[in-house]
Specification:
Radius of gyration: 12 Å
Structural class: mainly alpha
Order of helices and strands: HHH
Helix content: over 70%
Shape: elongated
Oligomer: single chain
Number of helices: 3
Distance between the termini: 30 Å
Amino acid sequence: MGVVSLILGIVGVVLAILAFVPSIVFFNWISGIVGLVGVVLGILGLSGAQKGVATVGLIISAVVLVFAVLRLIGLF
């Protein structure tokens, strides 16, 4: 679960960066969903053997989720 969380975090970062392009703003929603799934999987991955990878994936996914929410409500 931790590796999947890390991968989703990296994909979420790419989608959040692409969301700054004015014509593809809908990537905000997609990056928010990817970030939320990454956070949940990161929390579930903390009980496994690869706790370091799960922690990094959890942190990256949480940052993506915060940026997506801030962008959606118009503060960013």
